[in-house]
Design goal:
The complex is a heterodimer.
Chain A (H helix, E strand, L loop, with lengths): L1 H22 L6 H15 L4 H13 L1 H9 L2 H10 L1 H37 L1
Chain B lengths: L7 H22 L6 H16 L3 H7 L1 H5 L1 H14 L1 H6 L1 H25 L4 H7 L6 H11 L3 H26 L4 H23 L1 H29 L1
The chains are: A mainly alpha, B mainly alpha.
Chain lengths: 122, 230
């Protein structure tokens, strides 16, 4: 029962997420809308976390397996990627480091600013 | 004779078996960086090559597993819920860092792709690459990228952050635990989080929740950015 209830709740949020995304011109993927809806349902108590923990835990703990099939599509693309291999690798490496620094410095800056303001108040 | 091997149950056994093997090898080796992926992908490719099974047949047969990516993303709502206290306590900081990280990510991909003369297919497939794979693939599909190329870039991006992240953080002089977790999670999703957990409990928790937040914010930022600049 627990698995079936969890499956039902998660699938219902995905279905409604798809519906809302479809009606709003697919600006957000339906799955992401579903994620936000589930978060709201949990916050408002409409859904209890224990009702979905088993199924949601299974899905998020084993995420890798769900994209293995799609990943194989790369075999058909390999010929094209190989031509731009170095450019592709450079973009991925450089932008990853930039994102890391941007997010970390923003938080660090905000923390320093708030502690500075607190000290000045005193 | 061939249809005895080329059927849906056989292909599902291959996917699940390759994944379980990958998980088992990581557990035995005790290396957090040895992602199940590194084992599973070569195993699947070699089996397909040896048996002469077309890749398209393999992908069609695994439609059932592929479909579960959607429910998988929805389930991340529970991760957000579990971390609601950390989110609320650091709301302003976390929200701004994720938004800044996301915008810097998309803008830098755009500029570098143009600089290196990469095609629009690369650009659109790379834009959502700092996000967890299922969300990145959905975003890529919506904006017209190639989900397979996105998936590979996401994993690569995860390894870059997991391997170089701690060094970059050390050089950058960032000291706050929340900031370190945000950097790792925003840049390198699940793989970065596995490494952030080794840095400390706060780093791990913040990194874990930034996976879901970064996914959400990037899903909004990417189409907006493309609308304005492309």
């Amino acid at each position: 029962m627990e698995v079936l209830t969890g499956f039902f709740i998660i699938m219902a949020h995905l279905a409604v997420g798809n519906l809302i995304s479809g009606l709003t011109g697919n600006f957000l993927p339906g799955s992401v809308t579903g994620m936000v809806l589930l978060f709201i349902s949990l916050l408002t108590g409409l859904v209890k976390d224990r009702q979905i923990r088993k199924v949601a835990g299974f899905l998020t703990d084993n995420m890798t397996i769900f994209f293995l099939p799609a990943f194989m599509g790369i075999m058909d693309l390999w010929g094209m990627i190989r031509l731009d291999l170095w450019a592709w690798l450079s973009v991925v490496v450089l932008t990853t480091i930039l994102v890391l620094l941007a997010a970390a410095y923003t938080q660090e800056g905000i923390e320093r600013m708030t502690s500075f303001l607190k000290r000045r108040k005193r | 004779m061939m249809e005895l091997i080329m059927n849906v149950p056989m292909m599902l056994v291959l996917t699940v078996g390759a994944y379980l093997l990958g998980v088992w090898v990581r557990k035995k080796s005790g290396l957090a960086l040895l992602h199940p992926f590194i084992i599973s992908i070569p195993v699947i490719i070699s089996v397909l090559k040896v048996m002469d099974i077309p890749c398209s047949f393999y992908m069609e047969s695994n439609a059932m597993i592929d479909f579960l990516l959607g429910p998988c993303v929805v389930s991340l709502g529970l991760v957000l819920y579990d971390n609601r206290e950390v989110i609320l306590k650091n709301l302003a900081g976390i929200a701004s860092s994720v938004v800044v990280g996301s915008i810097v990510g998309v803008a830098s991909v755009f500029l570098l792709c143009r600089l290196f003369g990469l095609s629009d297919m690369f650009l659109l497939s790379l834009e959502p690459k700092s996000v967890t794979t299922p969300i990145a693939m959905d975003v890529s599909e919506v904006i017209g990228g190639n989900p397979s190329l996105t998936a590979v870039s996401v994993v690569l991006c995860g390894f870059v952050g997991a391997v170089l992240g701690p060094l970059v953080i050390k050089i950058s002089g960032v000291r706050s635990s929340v900031a370190k977790g945000l950097g790792m999670g925003c840049a390198s999703h699940g793989l970065g989080t596995a490494r952030a957990i080794e840095m400390g409990a706060v780093e791990g928790a913040v990194s874990g929740l930034s996976i879901a937040l970064m996914g959400l914010v990037t899903a909004v930022v990417v189409p907006l950015f493309n609308h304005l600049f492309i």
